[in-house]
Amino acid sequence: MTDLLLSEAEKMFIIHGVQDNLRVDGRSCDDYRHIELETDVVSSANGSARLKLSQTDVLVGVKADLTTPPTDNPDVGTLEFFVDCSANAAPTFEGRGGEDLARDISSTLARAYSSDRCSSSMLKALCVVPSEQCWVLYIDILILECGGSLYDAVSIAVKAALSSTKVPVVKVTSSDGGKPELELSDDPYDSLRINVKHAPCNVTLSKIGHSHVVDASLEEEVCSLASLMMAVTEEGTVTMLKKSACGSLHPESIYEMLETGKNVGLNLNKQLTRQLLDEECLHTQMGTNREPKGFL
Amino acid sequence: MLTSMLTSITIYLNAMPLDRMRIPGPEDSKPPFVYETPSGVDVSNLVKTNGCRKDGRKADHIRPMFIKCGIISQAQGSVYIEFNNTKVICGVYGPREFGKREDFSMNGRLTCDFKFATFSCKQRRQHQQDAEEKELSQLLLQSLSPAVCLHKFPKAQVDIYVIILENDGSALSAAVTCGSLALADAGIEMYDMVVACSARKYFNSILLDPTAAEEIVPMKTNESVDEGEMTVAYMPSLNQVSGLILKGEMHTQVCAQIMKSCLEGCNLIYPVLQQSLITSIRKSLSNVDLQGSKEL
Fold first, then answer.
1. What share of chain A is helix, strand, coil (3-state, %, to 5)?
2. Side by side, which strands form the sheet with B195-202?
3. What is the value of ipTM here, to two decimals?
4. Is there a contact between B246 and A76 if contact means CB atoms under 8 Å apart?
5. How buried is residue A293: exposed, middle or buried, by Cβ count under 10 Å (0-12/13-18/19+)?
6. Could you give the percent of chain A with pLDDT greater than 90?
7. pTM value > 0.90
8. How far is B287 from chain A (nearest CA, A)?
9. Is A239 in a helix, a strand, or coil?
10. DSSP strand E in A69-156: where?
11. C-beta atoms surrounding A128 within 10 Å
């Protein structure tokens, strides 16, 4: 990510502020920055979302395609995560520079979505003909700007994009003897929606001094030595837990962070679900007349 | 004419990506492991009624291990570790100057390379690193780097190569333990040794150091919450957790519980590592003595 140089005095200022539960931008330790989210921004994708978390800007597009299911799980569809760190966001991403970060984000997401309940609620519906045809959802994540808390922003955007994804309904007509034939529904509004009830949101807790903060800005990320990433579902269960950055943590502080992360994650999921419902209502009311805000 | 044709054929064959040594089956055939009941499904008898696991261990027992330091003469430090059937070999090279194109850095650099040998798992692995191995390399690096005094070797790098010769579960934790011991064997200055241990939550019990049969298989286990597997990398004398990764879904209290058992496991392994390091140093010192007396 972008290299940010902070002087010792600036770092101390941030660390002392965090100790008193007051951060540079006036937030408390458990607060997120202002989140702007819009779904269905890309008309050519099956589902999409754009999320702006202060200076972090992420665009997610979901494309559906038919393939043969994996041999060891013949009755489910699959999710493929692909992250593109564009050189627009940081000059260090140029060429193959962003590859490591991109791989890390996609493997973190894949891990978070690999829990059994999540995959059975989402992926079972994506099966068309067991061991013959299934839907694969290509989830492409474009990083437009990095301003801290990239993993959190990406995971929220992915959940929003998945909830707005419309997969065409396919009817299976078995022709006698031969392979089953697939028939696409004539009605373009006849579509399958993805159940995102068990989809998790990522919460990153950065250890700064003796306390920890959620949604660290770039400056705060420089001050933090180690952070704990957790993917929290709507029910408060954890589907992914990972220590990131090159520092270590005391076991006791991990236990504390787990509790904070759970509460923050629960709240985040609740807010997101409500906003997505509102957005859905807006879409149905306005229909095609809705003017997407997009990048205006 | 004939010879030129023959050479062209051989060149053509060499250019083919297919593995000619294998007998390909019919096009729609599936590998046999798809049909065998995966060990993950057979959850009823991971723990027998008398509280013993399949290999006779109690839930909180780790497998017997064998450690040997200094087995690669060319490497600065090297270790072979065996946890029953999980066999890992690790070589450490460096500190050596890093490539000319790299920028100057006051801190040394650590690189990790994690590889499953092609024959190490049930399914054959490819020669090239796949996505899972790349992710595990990253995790290995994040677990080991907090322990190394990187400021002691500016503008130099240390390379850690880990190969899993045989994978019978807990490969990552074995790799971390092996890597840190190899670093110590290489004489790289460290704050503490890193010990890693895995545990799997299985109904009401926590199985320490799971074998491949006890490891969690995604999509094959029943859809319950609080099923999962955690690997913790820990520095016992500093009481710091340097690496943490979770697979599965569980509540935060259960997370903390599993972490505690992992830490207990780490504390069991730590004295063994110290012992083997002392043995290897004693041996090398006695070798020096022998050589010295010969010269006299």
1. 35, 30, 35
2. A211-214, A201-208, A226-232, A238-244, B240-249, B227-235, B195-202, B205-208
3. 0.89
4. no
5. exposed
6. 44
7. no
8. 38
9. strand
10. 78-85, 127-129, 133-145
11. 19
The confidence band for B11, taking pLDDT boundaries of 50, 70 and 90, is: very low
The answer to whether residue B15 neighbours chain A at the CB level (below 8 Å) is no
Average pLDDT of chain B to the nearest whole number = 83
What are chain A's domains? Answer: 8-295 (3.30.230.70)
The two structure tokens encoding residue A79: 């999710």
B238 touches chain A (CB under 8 A): yes
CATH 3.30.230.70, domain B53-284, yes or no: yes
Q: What is the reported pLDDT for B9?
A: 47
B138 touches chain A (CB under 8 A): yes
- Write the pLDDT tens digit of every residue in A171-201: 888 766 667 788 887 777 788 888 888 899 9
Residues 6+ apart with CB under 8 A from B32: none
pLDDT(A289) > 70: no
Interface of A with B (CB under 8 A): 71-73, 76, 100, 103-104, 107, 111, 114-120, 226, 228, 233, 235-251, 254-255, 258-259, 261-262
